Amino acid sequence: xxxxxxGDVTDIDPISLEIQWQRLVAIADEIDTAVIRTxxxxxxxxxxxxxxxxxxxxxxxxxxxxxxxxxxxxxxPRTTRDMLKKFPAAALEEGDVLATNDPWxxxxxxxxxxxxxxxxxxxxxxxxxxxxxxxxxxxxxxGDLEASDMFMxxxxxMPNKFYARGQVVPIVEExxxxxxxxxxxxxxxxxxxxxxxxxxxxxxxxxxDDYRLDDIESLSHAIQGRSERALRxxxxxxxxxVSEYEITxxxxxxxxxxxxxxxxxxxxxxxxxxGSSPQQWHSAINAAFNISYSTAVYPxxxxxxxxxxxxxGLVRPLHITAPEGSIVNCTFPAPVKARxxxxxxxxPLIFGALADLLPDEVIAAAGGIFPFHIVGQDARYGRFAVHxxxxxxxxxxxxxxxxxxxxxxxxxxxxxxxxxxxxxxxVMTRKAMLTDSGGAGKRRGGPGQEIALRHIxxxxxxxxxxxxxxxxxxxxxxxxxxxxxxxxxxxxVRLERFVPIQWQPGEEVVLRVPGGGxxxxxxxxxxxDVQADVTSGLVSLEAARDIYGLDVRFDPEELQLxxxxxxxxxxxxx
Amino acid sequence: MSTQRYRFGFDIxxxxxxxxxxxxxxxxxxxxxxxxxxxxxxxxxxxGWHQLLGEANAAGSEVVSAIHGTTLITNALxxxxxxxxxxxxxxxxxxxxxxxxxxxxxxxDLHAPPVTHLVPRPLRxxxxxxxxxxxxxxxxxxxxxxEQLSETLEKAGVTDRIEAIAxxxxxxYANPAHEQATCDWLKARFPQAAISASxxxxxxxxxxxxxxxxxxxxxxxxxxxxYLARLYRELTQAGxxxxxxxxxxxxxxxxxxxxxxxxxxxxxxxxxxxxxxxVFYGEMLGESNLVSFDMxxxxxxxxxxxxxxxxxxxxxxxxxxxxxxxGSGLPVRVPTIELIEIGAGxxxxxxxxxxxxxxxxxxxxxADPGPACYGQGGDQPTVTDADLLLGYLNPHYxxxxxxxxxxxxxxxxxxxxxxxxxxxxxxxAAAGIYQVVNENMISATRVHVAERGVDPRGLxxxxxxxxxxxxxxxxxxxxxxxxxxxxxGAGVTSALGFLTAPVAFDFVxxxxxxxxPATLAEMDEIYAELxxxxxSTLLKAGIPAQEIEFTRSADLRHMGQGHxxxxxxxxxxxxxxxxxxxxxxxxxxxxxxxxxxAHRHLGVEVTACRLRASGPVPHIRLSNPDMSDDAVAPxxxxxxxxxxxxxVYFDELNDFVxxxxxxxxxxxxxxxxxxxxxxxxxxxxxxxxxxxTAVVDKxxxxxxxxxxxx
Lengths: 574, 710
Prior knowledge:
The structure holds 2 protein chains of 2 kinds. In chain A, the strands form 4 sheets. Chain A has a 7-stranded antiparallel sheet with strand order 2-1-5-4-3-6-7, sandwiched between helices. Chain A is an alpha+beta fold. Chain A folds into 3 domains: 14-227, no CATH class; 363-520, no CATH class; 526-574, no CATH class. Helices cover 30% and strands 21% of the residues of chain A. The longest helix of chain A has 28 residues, at 183-210. Chain A is built from 13 helices and 20 strands. Chain B has 5 domains: 6-77 and 227-253, ATPase, nucleotide binding domain (Nucleotidyltransferase, domain 5, 2-Layer Sandwich), CATH 3.30.420; 84-225; 270-344 and 439-499, ATPase, nucleotide binding domain (Nucleotidyltransferase, domain 5, 2-Layer Sandwich); 362-436, no CATH class; 504-614, no CATH class. Chain B is globular. At the A-B interface, helix 1, helix 2, helix 5, helix 6 and helix 10 of A face helix 3, helix 4, helix 7 and helix 12 of B.
């Protein structure tokens, strides 16, 4: 072990530490499961757009639920510490729950509500439980992308007690309810989260009783110390040096560029976003620093500390900076609602910067996500607000093709078609992978998908779509091609602007969610893999010939028949 | 003497086939174990059949029923050795089998392999038809698209090689008409193929989960039907005159034909039987609130039993890519006893991770090379090695003395891979392994118990499996349970569950509506339809109509909520129930039991009606030939069963103490053993900790009571 590496590990024996740490992870997991099971909205219950974390009494992150999105859990401790500035420990009592959706304190756009509960044990504040969840509505305009400031995007609750001593604070509850379109759903989710905090608080108290602990300070110290040291060792094992990388992406009305300068110096890693585009006042794509920061942590963790449960020890060796007023560190009150359009490019930016140093760890860029959101009412379906998060293909790695459409870097799930159609008068007429959409490469990018929707109700519906990668595709790595571009068609017309659409009965919307980037030269792809892609329909005959250099001779029908035979025979072969 | 006095149960596992024969008149129980014969499973079965009937001097005609469970179906899914299966979906949705729920089961492992389903893309066909979300027809079923698929297969020359067909159309849970018409058409065109319709296999909302379940069912149906037919034929030739029943994951048993149609319901039959055995032992002891705990070589399985009823789930995953990662398997939506399974067993490997922390499992040394102390070349330290070093296991009496355990090899492995890296003694390292693996099981159990809204202080642990009774003490104690029970013959106990299961089958109908008085009448109608199905299924299984019982349950939630809880409804006719005074408070109370609060101002929504149709529970009274009531010794001291004393480590004493070791086979009813003590029998060892006292009950169970006064 390198002696000059920081991180104190002497204060708790490794066996007790393992046992107590795992116990905290299990508590966070239990809260996470309870949130899913008690939530009201599709975005929390079906799409899992929420995260849970446990912090120590100072607000340092100790652990997160294993399934929680990585950015949320890196942000929650920062949010908690900001809230503590207004509500220091002395101002907190048992049964209090703090809430805020402030973008600069919280997770950087208004729909994300942050709830933080102090945990008391024998009268002493010992920890915090935090949950951030994307609620269904916070008022404001219905669009995602076009806003000139945050005030257009909804109402903002600065840190306040949502519950005080176990009782809901009426003025806060009323404020939230009065300023959104679906108050039962929003309050249902928020109260459900408070319920899960009660469970979590009880579990932490039981845990402290079981181990006769008065607090978790030394445990927190040990968890963070060990984690920090492990990450420092991994960084120190890499050669010192600087690398830079740049990605230009669609933005909305004009493209933007992200730049990173990544420096490894000893056991520290410096990431600076200087040179990235300035924040934009015409498009709501700006990222407040909290989420840029936490998104930049993610690829480093994947590459260097994938198996260590998330905690603040893992961010100590990382020094992340971005110029104030840039698109990754926007200032109040810039519009921020669709900041995902910027931050999704941060992981590929960092992987790109490390692609030469860690070729077997990096992953090419992903096709991302085309969130769509509908609001309306119908005689047969009642009032509805439905979110769906369809994903594009993932990027390829040195060893494997990119995954089929899947969430990344967050971990949401797609709302089932049947759930959507049960709740509102739309019919999805197609949800299918797109041929030739995965970037070509020695390892192919994951394919994107096409989703077609038809309005079958009698009243207009407000439809909001937030596409991406319609101009600049997901880049490949080491000679791999970019994935296919995304597209949106409304009644057959390609859309360029994404204001909320009055969707009339009978009209059809088609989304083409992009594919992921490839890895390596397509000509080096195993011929059998190309053949298999052609057989399964993910790669066309033309692309096989022109890009992969494989001439497959069948006509389309013969190809289908051959594919069927191959599947049947293959089955008999094994 | 009755002419039909035996119940015969057998469980075909991956390695062993276990048999149990109970004489229902005398309560006498016989068991047998032999190696599974994977190519011809019936061979091992016949061996056991002849062996046990021979021992009992019984004729095949005296067997009143034979009950069977098997892992062959699960293995076919894991090894992908099922039928050539095609899938028919609604036009535009055949890729759902690939895109699934679009999630990653590991957020940080960018190299985690994908979950690939069972039917490749070219064998999926899209059919023109469409229902809307309310089950109304938007587009009729277009037979020309069926004809096209048939032509395509014909042109490819594979028509007669299609062994199974899965049909899953959108919203078929709400309206099965298109699926049924499609199946009728397919039956005529593909007479050789087994056909599974999603509306019959898993009529529940959420297309990927239903499609996955239907595909799994179709994929294993032909082999299951062939296998069961052959097995039944051979057993009949060997003298079985009555029916063969199959164990289901739900803990019920069902007739051969029904099982052949729904093989996906049998996937977890073996573990389910283990839980039923726990229920059975609990009943004998008058204990109805238990946690069954089965710890074998690779995994530990836990299940909460409340009021004699095992926890149930309506879904699970099979054939996981990462055995212990949620989301890495194929989802199967069928009723199942809810088992929590974690990678903690005797063979689980201990190591020090990148953080310098001690980890145990989920990787296992398996049977080969096995733990270091087996002396078969394994050099990784395992839980069994730690158990040996701590004095719990007897090196000369493991598996009844069939294997001599090598203490030095265990010590070397623990020293090299755990003690040295951690800078602790070998004993500390072994105690650490024991603690960490226990904590993994404690943690999983704690969450499982909590999610059912149960207080562990009212429970006892019932320990099975080779390693279960060695680890029961710290687990029960950490969860502040009352105590734990170690039934005799840990290996036999699971198969006993086959003989105590009632004939039962579960039915479900997705029905989403706010509950209003009118809804209650609609629900009554649904239940009446489900009861008609249940009656027909159970009549086929030979249960007389008057003995069929129905249990209604419903998936309920607050109005507008995304997920639901399943609640058993104690009402024969819902239309008679007062909604506001009775049903709503009933739901809120159940909800609050689990989650601590309920939104009493919100209405109640139903999402599914569930019905279990069951026959009578077979009553078996066990007698132990060695422990009849006359054998109750006047001297209840266990002294005459004492084998030896040896140094055994106990965490709460922080040291080894000289501990008495008893021979379980020499214990008699009523004997009392104060901890610390070790009780050895042929296939397992029970550890009784310092703060516990064990009593031998009249069916030879060790009932261990924990003492929390300090």
